[in-house]
Design goal:
The complex is a heterodimer of chains A (176) and B (153).
Chain A lengths: L16 H16 L2 E5 L3 H13 L3 E5 L2 H7 L14 H4 L1 E2 L2 E2 L2 E5 L7 H9 L8 E5 L4 H9 L4 E4 L4 H13 L5
Parallel strand pairs in A: 1-2, 1-5, 5-6, 6-7
Antiparallel strand pairs in A: 3-4
Chain B lengths: L1 H19 L5 H9 L7 H25 L6 H18 L2 H15 L3 H34 L9
Helix pairs in contact in B: 1-6, 3-4, 3-6, 4-5, 5-6
The chains are: A alpha/beta (176), B mainly alpha (153).
Main location (chain B): cytoplasm
Function (chain B): Functions as a two-component phosphorelay mediators between cytokinin sensor histidine kinases and response regulators (B-type ARRs). Plays an important role in propagating cytokinin signal transduction.
Pfam families (chain B): Hpt (PF01627)
Chain lengths: 176, 153
Amino acid sequence: MELMKSENIVQDRQPQPQEEEEIMQQEEEEEQRFHVLAVDDSVIDRKLLEKLLKASSYQVTCVESGEKALEYLGLLHHSSPASSSSQHHHQETQGHKVNLIMTDFSMPGTSGYDLLKRIKGSSWKDVPVVVMSSENVPSRISMCLEGGAEEFMLKPLQLSDLHKIQAHLLKSLPHS
Amino acid sequence: MDVVNQLQRQFIDYSASLHREGFLDDQFTQLQKLQDDNSPDFVVEVASLFFEDCEKLINNMARALEQQQGVDFRQVDASVHQLKGSSSSIGAMRVKDVCVAFRSFCEAQNREGCLRCLQQVTHEYSLLKNKLQTLFRLQQQILAAGGSIPVVE
């Protein structure tokens, strides 16, 4: 799909009607894919998670900390849950919907558990949150599940783990 | 085509030995399976990130253990925990196993034990780095000779 000819200066050029349609189609296709926000302080785990998710045709945004995740969700400066006006408005941030949040448990600063609680106490509470950890600690698992996590997964994640995630995403689709 | 076959056999044998000797576990195979046309250098990229991370963490541990005024074992443990996670994610089994022992010594606040583990982890990391570089070199040779990388289960 050739959207721009190389000899044209992108910013000065008006898209032709046919190209405009192609651009819109591409954006629409991106909108239809599930968007996952992945939170992990390990650069290796971020790269791995991004690859796993992209290999399963998800759109991915990776952030390196709980704070960055809160910032992305627009929750960083709010101490109380925003009043809900419309569900669609709160499922979007920076023009992007978020269908699933996957977070590591052990992170410096805002931990995965802290992040989970903040999300569940906000207008994002209906977005499923999956907590990941390299350690299999039963009390940690129940704490996260009780805190509202949809699922707790042991690292390192594999492609087969992504199937479980698909089920959660399908469950969370808005009823229209 | 004989050259390609020979190189491919070498690759398979070398790969198998790395698994047999415990340098790599199944997680590494998972990474290789994730590599595709969209990301043909995925495994090499992850390995490079791992080596960088390793060096940084080993330096952190060494510095923390050198403190004459008293070692902050929590700081050492934090680095070991990170290294354990990374090595687990890439399938670096021997490095990961040393980290497990290392964490026990941190918990016991045993400086001598920690120093021994630091030495061991440094050793395992260099061994693995050399072996993976050899593996990647074999891969490059196969590709340069027009062959494809065999999938090793």
